[in-house]
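Table S2 (continued). Query chain:
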Amino acid sequence: MKFNLLNEPELVFGGGKHICPKTGITDYSVYDINFKARKTDFLLGIVGLEEDIEKLNDWLKVCEGFISAEDSDKQNISFPGFNRNTGFKSSFQYSSEISRMLSLSTLKEILREPNRNKRISDAVNEFYKQCKFLSEDKKVDIIICIIPKIFEDKIVKDRNDFSVEENIEEESDTKKIETNFRRALKAKCLQFDSPIQIIREYVLSESKKIQDRATIAWNFSIGIYYKAMQTVPWKLDRDSNLPPACYVGISFYRSRDRTTLQTSLAQIFNENGNGIILRGSPVSKDKDDRIPHLNYDEAYDLLFKTLEHYKFALSTIPGRLVLHKTSKFYEDELHGFEAAAKEFGVIAYDIINIQETDIRLFRNGLYPPHRGSMITIDDTKILLYTRGSMEYYRTYPGMYIPAPLLINIVKSASSHRTISNEILGLTKMNWNNAQIDGKYPITIGCSRKVGEIMKYLNETDKPKTKYAYYM
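Corresponding output:
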């Protein structure tokens, strides 16, 4: 057994590098400021009750200026303002012309519907109609849907409906058909070119704030920027002398009643953070084996299609392929992936299984092991702390005792340190917030967000290929 402490991966911004997204944007601006075709303004459509739209307009106005952090330190950084002169180098454009007010009487009528599934479906349709108009007639870049307070408990059950739990274990079996407002609305709006951002009224209410205003502004603005601009505010720092890499996450999702065929899903990210989502073929589940997997042909077809998209987007084939999966690789599945890579001319590949653990390690002092702690167990197994104490913060920023991920190396062309460094770096590629220490690499972390929305699509529906539409 061998211990190593990996350095915190650096991120690249418009004019420099830093390990922290907040400091990087504040000091060096967003990554894409040097792009010639970059937009500096974007149209922000809004759907909600009149008073909620007014609250959002007030909040957007606040976000345009400097917001001081309540406890200013490296962990709590003041927000520089969303405008053309500070880090984002962009501005929101919003007005009544691109806002759609919901009728309170109509929403109350929806809430009188006794059947919960019908009630949620009617609520989705009411928002959908307004989103359709803003996207198709007004051509806005992004649509913010404000969930009114009266929907609490009747349409949205609890605040966890709007956060994806960082859990890659299987969910409990149930035959009850899932009906989730957020997921259903996002799925129905996938046909539009304008991504949607869903927020709940309590986020805009000062009396019920759950974070300080600077933190809310950071997370809100980064998510809006990524979706509206269709670009990335930062990317991973990488040795330019190395061949380009393609990172692929393979996962599965179940139907809403959790009884029908599972479907394979591929999340592709290049080293710049640009992502593509592909839906694979339905997968048969072995009645004697609960773990979903692909057969040879399914694995071959999914990865070959993935590499075709990569080549089309970048006009080159990857010099190296990195394949992540949370369930084990079966022999026929593995052979199918390898055959597709070789057929495409990719000879260097790392095939990695990433799993949760219940392991807890301790060190001297009050704090848990450092993020980046890498414990090599043997030639194929590594424990990697993607959450833990951080020297940059001089503390542990989490609430619970962290557990390492188990990295099972199935096939590799790279060293253990390279594989672990990349996983650690990919945990920072979530553009829905400014968090420095995500638990899962983006290849794995986005899979549940995508899958929980994909399950609301029919087989004939054409899903969007950009991650921005699912987060």
